[in-house]
Protein: N-acetyldiaminopimelate deacetylase
Amino acid sequence: MSFVQIRRDLHKIPELGFQEYKTQSYLLNYLKSLPQKRMRIETWKTGIFVRIEGLNPRKTIGYRADMDGLPIVEETGLPFLSEHPEKMHACGHDFHMSIALGLITHFLNEPIDDNLLFIFQPAEEGPGGAEPMLQSEIMNDWKPDMILALHIAPEYPVGSIAVKEGLLFANTSELFIDLTGKGGHAAYPHQTNDMVVAACSLVTQLQTIVARNVNPLDSAVITIGKISGGTVQNIIAEKARVEGTIRTLSVESMEKVKKRILSIVRGIEVGYECEAKIDFGSSYYQVYNEGKLTREFMEYVRNDTNVEVIECEKAMTGEDFGYMLKEIPGFMFWLGADSRYGLHHSKLNPKEDAIDVAISMLSKYIHYKGTKSE
Ligand SMILES: CC(=O)N[C@@H](CCC[C@H](N)C(=O)O)C(=O)O
Structure:
């Protein structure tokens, strides 16, 4: 079966974080069809560890692929559209998994000296599978000496990768704020505390944090992606909920932004005579690419493959792969996949040629890293 077909099969069955049951079972079925002699498979929740024994191992090279989809109604019109209502692989994890399977298949047929560890990780979009997976017993036993991962990039052409050493992705924190006031008849606002009005004021005030509290030479983002509240057009809302995400380039700025959010929310409680509950949800550590390995990878791809290497800027995207890179030297890079619509868009349609580009380039690079004497 081709890895494009595998991507299409996976694209049909997107599942949210820690619910990747069908995805896990699909991957396990494929893995069982491969030669088993040098491969060991362990499941962890809805994730999977796959270890390939090297011929003359001195180290273990790790490769991580994330597995979950997003709560989006797909609008691509593709013949292999998501079969799961209101769920879509809109962040390319179907690509990431297919590429990992391609690499596993390659290295079972063409063994190298070093051990390889492939990590199929659940819940990248939230609440985060990387950190608990890192702390698992299996990871402790099979811990790699270096690790890499990729993320598809709609803005770069197929046949290119984009990468930089040092900081690549931001620190993140989710944000959930529940407001509770006093609802009532639409015609009697003076007898109520309207939580729709409080939520609107809150969202506007939150936008002042990046403009007024974060050093302009630093960067931060506060995005509110969802507001909900009220029941019907002629009842004043008793409850409202504001949901968003915070991104910062430094851990210190994240602390500052959270402190300001707490103050602003206390102000809303006083000003609108309501109760507010704040939940910062899950947070991800920044993605920081280790210098030596990243530079060596860029050099290798430039000189030994026909893939173009673009030196990119850092992005305010988040990735819990950052936790893995905090403990294990390695890097993440963007894989050019050329889609008119971006990540997290209902019409994201990356070019499938990127799958073979990645398998071919990474099998060469991993072969080079896994046979070369350091
Ligand atoms: C690559 C990517 O798009 N990652 C997500 C990670 C989200 C983490 C969490 N749910 C949050 O919203 O903070 C991203 O949105 O950058």
